[in-house]
């Protein structure tokens, strides 16, 4: 007698429903429906809601995203069959509770996909900073004349030294993107071996050396107790006059008062997609300084880029349905060194 084919897994969405259409547009939703059994109209925001009880009781897989409530013992009671969580977003640090890890549920994240636009944003800002594009824009708006040779003597990206702090997913993707350009690249990451740094096209150096030798410094370290305020007043003082700091990681990695002092003085410039606090208070001088470019936390996946996260979750579900391990599994031990 022939064996019965395996039953497709049952999946449930758990996130803020506003994100669902961009994470899973119709073609991707159709592909998802071929892999698993799910109710596309059911998007859970409360694991205790009566409307979610029946679906959670049968769920094998939870597809989560921004706005998902914490996954704790209450969820495990509501979803006794749960065996995998596929997070169609970045960090799972504050999402996955101890009970989920202890039950041995497989956890996957689309953090690698979310790293792509952050690295692209950073590359764009490095190139624009090297051309002094923002200052030239401001001068052009007021003077309405082309710059004289003396105004561009220190401008250009040939041989400019870029310091990358953190060989994270974003940091590694950025290092790949930097390879075609004529930069000197320094890397500081306590977990990256000299061989890994060389393979990434960078020179491994201590943090203080990176700060003192770089023209542009870009932050890609996780927000952990050990990285809190890693760029304090003493370390910011190591940056050479005219250096540019780019932060697309977390504002908590930099001492905000020390950074504000350096920027108000005009000694340094900064491109900040993240700050502490976020957003900055309305009276912050950073909004008005000509040597500061502020963007409202846009480096990560936005708009049509969200589909890349959904594609990652769908690909992971395909692997699980085929009996394979996920390509982007997150393990509990990983959280000691990643966001």
What is the total tally of β strands? Answer: 12
- What Rg is obtained from the alpha carbons, in whole angstroms? 23 Å
| Alpha-beta content class | alpha/beta
Helix coverage percent of residues? Answer: 25-40%
Average pLDDT taken over every residue: 95
What would the principal axes of the Cα set say about the shape?
elongated
- Largest beta-sheet characterization: 7 strands, parallel
Distance between the termini: 50 Å
Give the strand order, joined by hyphens, for the main sheet.
8-7-6-9-10-11-12
Flag low-confidence runs. Answer: none
Tell me the series of helices and strands, N- to C-terminal: EHHEHEHEHEHHEHEHEHEHEHEEH
Question: Could you characterize what this model shows?
Answer:
With 339 residues, the chain is an alpha/beta fold. The chain is 35% helix and 13% strand. The chain is built from 13 helices and 12 strands. It has helices at residues 20-23, 26-35, 50-58, 73-78, 98-103, 111-130, 133-143, 169-178, 194-199, 207-213, 233-236, 256-265, 306-321; strands at 11-14, 43-44, 61-64, 84-87, 106-109, 161-165, 184-188, 203-204, 216-219, 244-247, 269-272, 292-294. The strands form 2 sheets. It has a 7-stranded parallel beta sheet with strand order 8-7-6-9-10-11-12, sandwiched between helices. A 5-stranded parallel beta sheet has the order 2-1-3-4-5, sandwiched between helices. The longest helix has 20 residues, at 111-130. 39% of the residues are buried. The mean pLDDT is 95.
């Amino acid at each position: 007698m022939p064996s019965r084919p395996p039953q497709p897994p049952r999946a449930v969405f758990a996130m803020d429903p506003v994100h669902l259409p961009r994470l899973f547009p119709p073609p991707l939703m159709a592909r998802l429906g071929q892999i698993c059994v799910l109710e596309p109209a059911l998007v859970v925001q409360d694991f205790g809601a009566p409307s979610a009880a029946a679906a959670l009781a049968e769920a094998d897989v939870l597809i989560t995203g921004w706005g998902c409530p914490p996954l704790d013992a209450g969820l495990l009671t509501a979803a006794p069959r749960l065996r995998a969580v596929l997070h169609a977003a970045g960090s799972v640090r504050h999402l996955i509770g101890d009970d989920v890890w202890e039950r041995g549920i497989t956890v996957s994240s689309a953090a690698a996909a979310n790293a792509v636009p952050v690295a692209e944003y950073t590359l764009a800002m490095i190139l624009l900073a090297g051309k002094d594009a923002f200052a030239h824009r401001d001068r052009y708006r007021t003077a309405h004349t082309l710059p004289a040779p003396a105004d561009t003597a220190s401008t250009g990206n040939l041989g400019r030294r870029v310091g990358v702090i953190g060989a994270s997913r974003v940091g590694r993707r950025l290092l790949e993107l930097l390879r075609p350009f004529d930069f000197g690249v320094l890397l500081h990451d306590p977990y990256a071996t000299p061989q890994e740094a060389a393979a990434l096209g960078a020179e491994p150096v201590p943090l203080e050396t990176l700060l003192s030798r770089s023209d542009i410094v870009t932050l890609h370290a996780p927000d952990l107790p050990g990285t809190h305020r890693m760029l304090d007043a003493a370390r910011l003082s190591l940056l050479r006059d005219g250096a540019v700091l780019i932060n697309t990681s977390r504002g908590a990695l930099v001492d905000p008062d020390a950074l504000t002092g350096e920027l108000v003085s005009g000694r340094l410039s900064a491109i900040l997609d993240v700050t502490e606090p976020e957003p900055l208070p309305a009276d912050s001088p950073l909004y008005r300084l000509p040597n500061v470019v502020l963007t409202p936390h846009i480096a990560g996946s936005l708009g049509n880029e969200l589909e890349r996260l959904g594609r990652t979750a769908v690909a992971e579900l395909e692997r699980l349905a085929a009996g394979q391990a996920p390509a982007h599994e997150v393990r509990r031990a990983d959280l000691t060194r990643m966001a």
